Structures are given as structure tokens and as C-alpha cells.
Amino acid sequence: MRTIIVGDIHGCIQELTGLLMKLEFNQREDRLVSLGDLMDRGKAAYEVFSFFRQLKLEMKERCIIVRGNHEQMLIDIACDRQMKRLWHMNGGRETEKSFFLHGRKAQTHIPWLEKNTVFYWIGEGYQCVHAGIIEEKPEKNSLDTLLWDRDAITENCYDKRLTIVGHTPLWDPIYLRGDGRSGEILSYRKRMELPQTGMICIDTGCVFGGKLTAMVVEGEEFWLERE
What we know:
Helix content: 25-40%
Oligomer: single chain
Order of helices and strands: EHEHEHHHEEHHEEEEEEE
Number of strands: 12
């Protein structure tokens, strides 16, 4: 089974569908993993949300949505109304507008997000979280680390089980060995052996004028594509 891991989408529906077309995504056979941040900042948050809601219904456990800090900000509004200001400052207004244009309210879908997103996902020889990691086992990390951390990338300080992340926008996907040195820029459309340790960040700033990147894992190899 191929596993397709997609970086931060932020309401960029055309880039998402274009990327999946390039990959000849087969929802009956492939596994699809979103690293979170489906919404906010981009104009088509409702379309992206609806796309994944339908995929989750049809693919079930083969569609994994790792919760990002932007989903968490929306969820937090349900119990702390003051969080709405923080959410708006981070692109929440665009999400509200997108849902409103379709006669919907983003807040009414909070229960769905709580039920259908996970804080981490463990694959065969690697794992996925949204932002960062300190302890090798994801469940040993705080939610603040999993949802908001950038230190593991900026300081290149994680050298345990391979972890795929988004959250920190970069111009190119990068592999970090955890040795404190500069990361290794990864090429697109080139088959590579899957590392056993370190981090790979595939958030390439789609909503900021960059590209949407996907990582395709097949056995012990992986390759990257962008839209």
C-alpha cells in the first residue's frame, strides 16, 4: 500500500487536488495522511474540510488527519471564547468567511474535528506529527510540542525514530539528522531510501506563495512531489 503524506494545506484546494492528480491518487488502494492545518489563511477552507470529510467517510482508517495547531485553535473556542481572537489573528477569519459563503459555520464542525483527527500517527518505520517532537514516543510529548514546536527543526536536535512533520514553512522539504548542523534539502521526483532516524519537514509554504508538497512512501523508499 502506498502512503501519501501531505503537508500543510491551509485552504488551498486547487493545489491539493492538483497534487493528488499528479500522484494518481487511488482512494480505494492508497493511504492518505494529512499533517494538519487543513484550514485558515487560505480562501477555500470549507472546500478542503469537505474534501477530507468525504474521504474519511469513504476511506475510513486509510485516511488519517493529524491535528494541527489551527484545528486546535478552532476546537479551543468551544471551551474558551477568548481563543477566538488568537484564531482570527492566525487566519481564522478566512475560514469563517469560507464556511459562511457555503451557508455553514466552522464552529458547528468542532465535534467532527475532535472525533476524526489524531495527535500522531505511527507508520511502518516512521511516524507523523504536526509540528515537533522531543521524546521518541509521540504520546510522551506534550500537546504543545506536537502542535506548536519549531525547536526540533530550527535547532536540528531530534535524532530518534524518523518523524515526518509540517508546521514550519520552508522553501524546500528538508531532512534533519538531529546533529545540530544544517539540514539536507531533498529533491523532488527522486526515489530515496527511507531514513531510520531524524526528521523530514514537508511544509513548503503553499499558502505563502510556495508549493504544496507530498511525500510518498512505498516500502523502504520514498519520493516527493509538489504542486
